[in-house]
Write a structure and sequence with these properties.
413 residues, mainly beta, binds molybdenum atom, five-stranded antiparallel beta sheet, Immunoglobulin-like, 2 domains, single chain, globular, binds the ligand Nc1nc2c(c(=O)[nH]1)N[C@H]1C(S)=C(S)[C@@H](COP(=O)(O)O)O[C@H]1N2, Sulfite Oxidase, Chain A, domain 2, disordered N terminus
Length: 413
């Protein structure tokens, strides 16, 4: 089991007050800070470069995808530093621009209501005091991570591969909080809503739901800490939902409402938004295909990447060269990461790094000896359920759940 209790309250409390005092200077972003520098990030059909920004509170240098609402991508080099994504380089994604610019942890409460015995409200300090603390390492990946590689192109945030991050999350079990409220018989789903609001009143606010059984599985958490720090405002201060193994669309930030429903949630954000063709793990269809059944996106699938060598990198010919990267198993652990230098005919296992639990990134590394010339390196993850990354990419109109064996061109000289 990867869940274990922690009792480091005082430090957390102090960090909380610090973050609360920082505030979100979103309106004060200077144009200069926004446009300072660019980074190469070629997507099929362009663009080849992206702007970098340091203008967002709690964030270091990030790739600017959009300003309002903020969409900030993690620069690829970050993933080579280790399996835990630094908090100030963790990607950011919001749907609506009307995000609270300050959050007072003493007064902000999450309210548990609906099909329960009693409605309850908790500040972050109430959660810390009343429930057992748990910690879990888990990957948070946007459903649309890598959307920029979909061909034909689809609308949405044109992410490269940096809309994902891994953290040690500390918080409480959602199950314990729901049990305190007393889920009534006949409950079907549990709905989550954050504290931001749409920019026009008629637009639907983001609301996401999980089945009651999933919400009470003992792994779904309300977390206030990531990698030893309070959540930055842009990542959901003072607390957010963590849904291990599931796409981040369910990981509601600045959590304000938990509603136990006695019916299935049919709101826009469950259907048609964030739906995939009903053929998990492929989530695949042909562009223009008719009568495809769509279902809400759910569990993640295995992925693996090279992190120390970029596409087109020059390496030495005829001598061992280090190749390393990260992998994750999706909704279960990494069993193996293999590489191929012959287009997928044969595969060689790599060494796996330390296991931080089945929902975490796992580092892999190996050495390759390449003959002179241009070589294609393929990397493939197999998870503990035996699920493998496919050789051909999937396609769907939402640009969701991109998954394919990644290939890196290397020039051996
Ligand atoms: N309140 C709130 N929570 C949210 C969202 C949002 O728009 N509002 N977006 C979701 C989506 S689609 C993603 S990808 C993740 C991004 O988490 P991050 O910004 O911490 O990386 O937050 C999720 N939780
Ligand atoms: Mo997302």
């Amino acid at each position: 089991m990867t869940l274990y209790p922690t009792d480091d309250d005082r430090r957390t409390r102090r960090q909380f007050l610090q973050t609360a005092a920082t505030g979100l200077g979103l309106l004060a972003l200077s144009r200069q800070a926004l446009a300072a520098q660019t980074i190469e990030l070629p997507l099929p059909g362009g663009p080849d470069t992206r702007r970098l920004t340091t203008a967002f509170p709690g964030k270091g240098q990030m790739i600017l995808q959009r300003t309002r609402p903020p969409l900030l991508e993690t620069p690829w080099s970050v993933y080579d530093k280790g399996v835990f994504t630094p908090v100030d380089e963790f990607y950011v994604r919001w749907h609506w621009a009307d995000i609270p610019t300050t959050m007072d942890p003493h007064t902000h409460k999450v309210r548990i209501s609906g099909h329960v015995d009693k409605t309850l409200e908790f500040t972050v300090f109430d959660l810390m005091k009343n429930f057992k603390h748990v910690e879990l390492a888990a990957v948070n990946q946007c459903s649309g991570n890598s959307r920029g590689y979909f061909q034909p192109r689809v609308p949405g945030g044109e992410w490269s591969n940096g809309a994902m991050g891994n953290a040690r999350w500390v918080g409480v079990r959602l199950k314990d909080v729901l049990d305190a409220a007393g889920v009534k018989p006949g409950a079907v789903q549990v709905q989550f809503e954050g504290s931001e609001r749409p920019v026009v009143p008629t637009a639907p606010n983001l609301k996401k739901s999980l089945s009651v059984d999933h919400a009470r599985d003992g792994e779904v958490m309300i977390a206030w800490e990531m990698n030893g720090q309070a959540l930055p405002l842009l990542n959901g201060f003072p607390f957010r939902l963590v849904v291990p193994g599931w796409y981040a669309t369910y990981w509601t930030k600045m959590l304000q409402h938990i509603r136990v429903l006695d019916h299935e949630d049919t709101n826009f954000w469950m259907h048609p938004a964030y739906t995939i063709p009903d053929n998990w793990p492929q989530a695949n269809m042909t562009p223009g295909e008719k009568d495809v059944k769509f279902v809400p996106i759910n569990r993640m699938v295995p992925r693996s990447f090279v992190t120390n060598l970029a596409n087109g990198a020059k390496v030495g010919a005829g001598r061992p060269e280090l190749v390393r990267g990260i992998a994750f198993g999706g909704d279960t652990g990494v069993k193996s990461v293999d590489i191929s230098l012959d287009g997928g005919k044969t595969w060689t296992p790599t060494q796996l790094g330390r296991d931080y639990g089945k929902y975490s990134f796992r580092q892999w590394s190996t050495h390759v000896k390449l003959p002179k010339g241009e070589q294609t390196l393929l990397v493939r993850c197999t998870n503990s359920d035996g699920l493998q990354q496919p050789m051909t990419p999937n396609w769907n109109p939402g640009g969701f759940m991109r998954n394919v064996v990644e290939s890196t061109q290397l020039i051996a000289v």
